[in-house]
């Protein structure tokens, strides 16, 4: 079963993403902050990380950059997903190592197509 670590501080967005992914057979683990996500990553290695940008404490941009620099997490695909939708935001995501950038609200079909492109 393919595992996704969902890092999202909005309970409603997290529930929507989790429902969508679980209906397609993904196993979903959730974290609501970068700090919580880093703790979870010590015990598990997901096939993909779905990461919000606006989080309490460390931003999704900062967390993405940090994870892409660490040998044990750098190969995990990261999809940034945010309401921030300017070209600058998208460029920041790419510069930080994100494998894809989705703008909220994301339709389920786009989300699933993006994940299937990144998870073999």
How far apart are the first and last residues' alpha carbons, in Å?
Answer: 12 Å
The CATH H-level superfamily is Response regulator
Unreliable stretches covering 5 or more consecutive residues? none
Average pLDDT metric: 96
The CATH topology, please? Rossmann fold
* Helix content estimate: 40-55%
Backbone structural class: alpha/beta
Q: Could you state the order of secondary-structure elements as H and E?
A: EHEHEHEHEH
Percent of residues in beta strands: 15-25%
Major sheet size, sense and barrel closure: 5 strands, parallel
Q: How many separate structural domains?
A: 1
Radius of gyration: 13 Å
* CATH class category label: Alpha Beta
Second rung of CATH, namely the architecture: 3-Layer(aba) Sandwich
Q: Looking at the structure, what is the overall shape?
A: globular
Number of contiguous helices: 5
Biggest β-sheet: strands ordered side by side in the sheet? 2-1-3-4-5
Number of extended strands: 5
Explain the overall architecture.
The chain has 120 residues and is α/β, with parallel strands linked by helices. It has one domain (3-118): Rossmann fold (3-Layer(aba) Sandwich). Helix content is 44%, strand content 20%. It has helices spanning 11-23, 34-43, 60-69, 87-95, 108-118, and strands spanning 3-7, 27-31, 48-52, 78-82, 100-103. Strands 2-1-3-4-5 form a 5-stranded parallel β-sheet, with helices on both faces. Strand 1 (3-7), helix 1 and strand 2 (27-31) form a beta-alpha-beta unit. The longest helix is centred in the first third of the chain and has 13 residues, at 11-23. The chain starts with a strand and ends with a helix. The mean pLDDT is 96.
